[in-house]
Specification:
The protein is 22% helix and 23% strand. By secondary structure, the chain is an alpha/beta fold. It has an eight-stranded parallel β-barrel. It starts with a strand and ends with a helix.
Length: 205
């Protein structure tokens, strides 16, 4: 089980998080987010995949941001269609396509995306595309019919470890857990000690 920490922004906070070695570190390039990045971002080691999060961005903007920030992975959190994902993947970058879930979800809508996405990400449907701070009903994912691995996201915190232990036993292709708001001191600033605790407990699951 891998760990992605999203919504990073403060350079010193990023440096502190690097010592914990999450598998993915996410930077949000959507101007309406409270965690929007409009400055330079630190260089990461090759073992941490630098992930850019975009919401219905132009291809030019994504290309420029990839170059300026040396992104390895692109997370698409808007209404991007399969053709759009195909273009991003042709840039030789990993593609994560996010989908929001509330009370139900039709997995058939994922089918056209299968050839063009490395991973899916399932998040809680809320007012914003992400970072809403609460979970959805994970049991809905028991019906996930595909082999494409996915990230589990949406309000995950230390208090969910026992639920995660139970959920993981369903033998679904969960690639990583994506954490953000539950570990924040304020938007864009993470409590590094809490993330360290979570990572240690995660590897015990």
């Amino acid at each position: 089980m891998k760990l992605k920490v999203c919504g990073m922004r403060d350079p010193k906070n990023v440096e502190a998080l690097k010592s914990i070695q999450p598998d993915y570190m996410g930077f949000i390039f959507w101007s309406q987010s409270a965690r929007y990045v409009n400055q330079e971002t630190p260089i990461l080691s090759e073992s941490i995949k630098k992930t850019g999060v975009f919401v219905d961005a132009s291809l030019d903007y994504i290309e420029t941001t990839i170059e300026n920030h040396h992104l390895q992975t692109i997370q698409l959190h808007g209404n991007e269609n399969p053709a759009y994902c195909k273009i991003i993947r042709s840039m030789n970058k990993e593609v994560i396509k996010a989908f929001s879930i509330k009370e139900k979800f039709d997995f058939e809508i994922l089918e056209p995306y299968l050839p063009h996405c490395d991973y899916f990400l399932f998040d809680t449907k809320g007012e914003l595309p992400g970072g809403n701070g609460y979970t959805f009903d994970w049991t809905l994912l028991k019906n996930y019919p595909y082999s494409t691995p996915f990230f589990l996201s949406g309000g995950i915190g230390l208090e969910h470890l026992s639920e995660l232990q139970t959920f993981i036993k369903n033998n679904l292709p969960i690639h990583a857990l994506d954490v953000n708001s539950k570990f924040e001191l304020k938007p864009g600033l993470k409590n590094i000690e809490k993330i360290k605790q979570f990572k240690e407990k995660l590897y015990e699951l």
